[in-house]
Structures are given as C-alpha cells and as structure tokens.
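Tip: read the tokens left to right.
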C-alpha cells in the first residue's frame, strides 16, 4: 500500500494592505468647503489607496474613479458655461431678446447636467 506522507503546508502570510483613509467632507451649513476641490480630493484618495492592489477589481475601481473625475469636469464645465451666459445676459449692451436667449442657454446647460439632455 502506498502511503502518502502528509507534509504540513506553509501558507504564505497575507500581505498587509494600507487601510482606506479619506478626508471627511464637511457640512456646507457649518461653513465647510464643499466644492469641486473636495470632490476631486476624495476621488484621488480612493484612487491612490487602490493602487496598492493588483487585481481586476482594483483596476475596475481605478477606472471608475477616472470616470468620476471626468464627470466632475463635465459638471463644472456646464456650470461655468451657465454662469458665463448669465453674466453676459446681464450686460447693459445686450438687447432684451439676446439676454433672454443667453438666460435660456444657461438653463439649458444646467438642465443638461441635471437631466442628461437639453
């Protein structure tokens, strides 16, 4: 009879990963800044933490954080365009018709972000 000798298996120690630590986002009603800067900082903190992993899920999380960053950029462009249109509409050199058109454009920019279309 062939006997197989049992050899103890040595499991490799589990690698230590740094815990996810993010800077809390404050409360606007308490005067804390809640701007694009804080949103991007949070995305970057998650992205930096995720770089310690080498797995498909980790790569997918980095990709999601990249997409989130692109959405922030898109949102702020829409807001910036809307503010510019409102500022131009208030110019004393604008005709009432042109001012109304610029205000409508501003609403269109904001609604595009809010509802996904003009």
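Filled-in amino acids:
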């Amino acid at each position: 009879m062939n006997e197989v000798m049992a050899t103890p298996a040595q499991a490799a120690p589990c690698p230590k990963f740094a815990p996810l630590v993010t800077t809390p986002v404050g409360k606007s009603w308490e005067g804390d800044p809640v701007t694009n800067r804080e949103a991007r900082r949070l995305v970057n903190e998650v992205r930096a933490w995720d770089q310690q992993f080498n797995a498909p899920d980790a790569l997918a999380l980095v990709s999601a954080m990249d997409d989130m960053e692109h959405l922030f950029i898109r949102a702020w462009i829409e807001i910036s365009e809307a503010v510019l249109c409102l500022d131009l509409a208030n110019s004393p050199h604008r005709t009432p018709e042109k001012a109304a058109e610029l205000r409508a454009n501003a609403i269109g920019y904001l609604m595009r972000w809010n509802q996904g279309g003009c």
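Residues 8 and 46 are 39 Å apart (CA to CA). The first helix runs from residue 36 to 50.
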